[in-house]
Structures are given as C-alpha cells and as structure tokens.
Protein 1
Amino acid sequence: MKFIYFVLVLLLFNCSSKSESQIDSFETDKSEILNVLKTQEDAWNNYDLEGFMQGYWKNDSLKFYGSRGLTKGWENTLNNYKKGYPTKAESGTLNFVINDISKIEGDNYWVMGEYHLKREVGDADGVFIIIFKKINGEWKIIADMSC
C-alpha cells in the first residue's frame, strides 16, 4: 500500500511540475509576443513603417491578407503600408487591443485583436488575427489577416 501511495504522489508531483513549466513557458512567450506588438505600436506612432515591419518575418513567404487581397512577402507588405499610409496624417496613432493569445503548437501562436487608428484624416478601426512563430530566437509575424 505504501508503494502505491508513493507512486501516486510521485505522479502527482510530476504532472503538476510539468503544468507549471508549461504555464511559465506560455507566460514568457505571451510576454515576448506582447513586447513585439508594443514595439510595433511605438514604431507606427513615430511614423517608422520600416521599424513597424521588424515585427514581421522578413521573408518572401510572409502572408498578409487584407482589404486588397493576399500579399506575399515582406517587401510587398512594406510597400502596401507605404502606399496606404503615405504621411503621418494617414498613419495617425495606433493602439492595439489584444483579445486572445493562444498556442497553436510548438513555437506558434495566434493573436486575435483590434487595431484603432486615431487620425487627422478620420479614425480607422478593425480586427486582426496574426500568427507568430519563433524564428532564430525571435518572435515574428508569419501571417496577418487584418480588416
């Protein structure tokens, strides 16, 4: 009987420490992802579109899906931002509202949220879902659907 009790306690300890480790990992990942988004907000609000794009995977396989359809590639996405927001008056002040961050699997998360632009030319609001992947130790957006 003592052996069964010992095994049960050992299993309980192992299960709880795995859960704590997974929770700690999720919280760390979430914090790092939120930092990327905060850095993007700051860059946008300084009308630094190249700085804003540092949160994206600098690769031709990056996918952005918005009102103009599907855009593939980092450079093409940057060019679309430059066309759509040619001046500070059009870009305005960005505020993200994050509604959910969920792990997909491995080093992949989705983030669901809202964006709010306060602008001289009229405010703009919308929603997004972005996919983050840890690449070379950094969290990068590999796919973005914003509308």
Note: The two ends are 62 Å apart (CA to CA).
Protein 2
Amino acid sequence: MRYSETRAAETREKVVKEAAAQIRKHGPDGVSVAKVMAAAGLTHGGFYAHFKSKDDLVVGALQSMFEQSRRRFAVVTDGLTGPAALAAFIDFYVTTTHRDHPERGCAIAVLNGDLARLEGTARDTYDAGFAAMVARIGKLLPAEIAGDREALALSMVSEMVGAVALSRALGDTAASIRLLDATRAAVKARAGLKDL
C-alpha cells in the first residue's frame, strides 16, 4: 500500500472512531460532521475525501463499534469454551461497569432507541451486529439445551441488552444494581449456567 493510501486509511479510521464516540454520546441524529471532523483534528472540507455522506459515516462508525464488541467478546472468552465462555460473557456484559460506561459499551445497548429511526444501510448494519451477537451466544449454549437454541439466544440477548439499557435509565442506584444482578442470574439459569 502506498503512503498516501495508508495515510488515507488511518485518517478515515480516526474519523470513524470519533464518530463512534459521538454516536454513543448523542445518538446518530445528534452527530455533526463538522464536530466529528474538528474533534479528529481535521477540516470539514476533507470529509468527502473519505465518506460519501453523513449516512456513510454513521455506517462506518457502527461497523467499527460492532468490531470493537466482537474483539471484546473474544478477549472476555479467551481460553474458555462453551458454557464457561458464555458465563464469562454474561458476567462481563450485565454489570454496573457496562452500565456506567456507555461510551465504550455495546452498541446494541446504547443505541437501541436511536437506531429504530434509521433506515437503509445503517439499519442493516445494526441488524447484522445484533444477529452476530445472537449467533455468538447461540454457539456457546450448553449441548444439553433442548428446543429452539436460536430462540433462547435471541431471548437472552434481548434480556441482557434491555437490562443494561434500563439500568442506565433508573435513578435509584440500588434498584439498578438489583435489576442487573437478577437479570444476570436469570439469564444464566435459563441457559443452564447456574453454577458457573
């Protein structure tokens, strides 16, 4: 790769990273191209050298967020297989740490209300990220789980995401913690991970 192509890719990644941070904070509708470019240390005029439109930027940011989530999943489950890996991920995901740090948390939990208003490629990217998480959970379910494994994985992801999102909205800290603790225990029990 020539220097200019490498530099262009690095610049694009810098802008995408900043856009992802702003999307997590303000939602996709609250992101300003000018502010993203300024925060990345670039001029607004250079935007179209890297992106076709704001929608293209949002898609790139979502892809980056889901890739970050995939890498985090791999780190959390590294060296573990099956049920042990799934239990570790649930214990990592349904926590006060995740609740308190949406800026580096799961895109599904932080954007679930915002993305419902998007259309086209951005919505497709969000849907694909959700499907990938469901697939990862489904693959780690214990072999003895009978019935529709995909339905169980869908339900588990929905409950985990909902618990984290709702725990952020609750003003009562004790209630928020109870919600997370109860959800973590219930999801693990339904997946046959009670003792993990």
Note: The chain has one domain: 53-190.
